[in-house]
Amino acid sequence: MQQRYFEDFRAGDRFETPGTTLTEAQIVDFALTYDPQPFHRDKVAAENSLYGGLIASGFQTMALVFRLFMDTGVLAACNLGGTAGEMRWLRPVRPGDTLRVAVEVVSVEPSRSREDRGRIRFAYTGLNQDGEPVLTMTLDHIVARRRPETPDA
Prior knowledge:
Strand content: 25-35%
Number of helices: 4
Helix content: 10-25%
């Protein structure tokens, strides 16, 4: 993939990722490590919960959505970090669900204080195998600008 920098992004640009399928073992392992609520880690307790079965932690879903986008390489050359925006969990993610991500550039703003970077707001939508949104979030990424070429001395 061609390396991208701040100047290469425009509001309205869209990116889509391939999908990945979550297994029951991945859901339970994440829950045991990071979010040990019964409906994430215990199949029987989950069946008796309002979810009617095991579901992935929302934090796992958020991390996976972010990871899928990062794996595209779109920000590989330029990402300097970022700040959180807003996030909504829209429907449960269950074992066997295949998630993919659609990402749209919402805005592109050069930094007012540093010439070497800018801020890009991305809107992420995590989608399940039926094309239903499971999560939406906006994140502001701090993105490097392309360095000016220096003339040969």
